[in-house]
Amino acid sequence: MIRIGVVDDEKMFRDRISEIVVNVLKGEQVQTEIKKYADGTHFFEALSAGETFDILLADIQMAGMDGMELGRRIRRNSPGMYIIFITSYEEYAAESYRIEAFQYILKQDLESRLPGVIRELAYRLEEQEQEYRIVGNSVEKVKLFYKNIIYLYKSKGAKYVNYVTEEGIFRERISLESLLKELDSKIFIPVERGYVVNMKRICRISGDTLYLEKGYQVQVSRARLTMVKQEITRCWGGK
């Protein structure tokens, strides 16, 4: 299931963007949930109330919270969301890249460019859905998607790795060294002895502290700090 938010203060464009997305993903046989909002404030309120989205398609010039301010807030709180700005004005392109938007599409190019962008993101998200592991015991087992892991840790001398996720904490009896060989090194990075963080889930870094989604915080060792900052910049810039 791909969850998409469409934000535009003109109903005509909200409906047209949604129609294009539906038609594209219908051809790809991908399940989709689309929710439409007339401004950035209502979208951000939904996000703050617990709604989750994989993709945001947003106009830039809107009354109240405009698309750029919405994008900045999302980058602080939901850094893994793909942002696509759709606007009538070219002058916002540079700012959109500072916010690390995935794409910037002019409304006059909507019909020609949006289908290809949506297909690419659908492919990426489908790949992520295929990356998971089964954890649990003989009584209960859980399919744990890598993309939902915020960070993981293993205490010194412990036999279990703890996965901290959106849904809670899960355990698996496995060595951290073995697990690191399976995880995507472009996304997951060791930041301290026994601690590995999903860089897509980092909201900000201040000093030696990583501020993650859901209010979690993880400290980076002094020896790794420079490397970790470089990798976070690479990961975020690679959206």
UniProtKB/TrEMBL annotation:
It comes from the Bacteria. Residues 3-122 form the Response regulatory domain. Keywords: DNA-binding, Phosphoprotein. GO terms for molecular function: DNA binding; phosphorelay response regulator activity. Gene3D superfamilies: 3.40.50.2300, LytTr DNA-binding domain (2.40.50.1020). The modification 4-aspartylphosphate is found at D59. Residues 146-234 form the HTH LytTR-type domain. The keyword 4Fe-4S does not apply. InterPro entries: CheY-like_superfamily (IPR011006), LytR-like (IPR046947), LytTR_DNA-bd_dom (IPR007492), Sig_transdc_resp-reg_receiver (IPR001789). May play the central regulatory role in sporulation. It may be an element of the effector pathway responsible for the activation of sporulation genes in response to nutritional stress. Spo0A may act in concert with spo0H (a sigma factor) to control the expression of some genes that are critical to the sporulation process. PANTHER family: STAGE 0 SPORULATION PROTEIN A HOMOLOG, TRANSCRIPTIONAL REGULATOR-RELATED. This is Stage 0 sporulation protein A homolog.
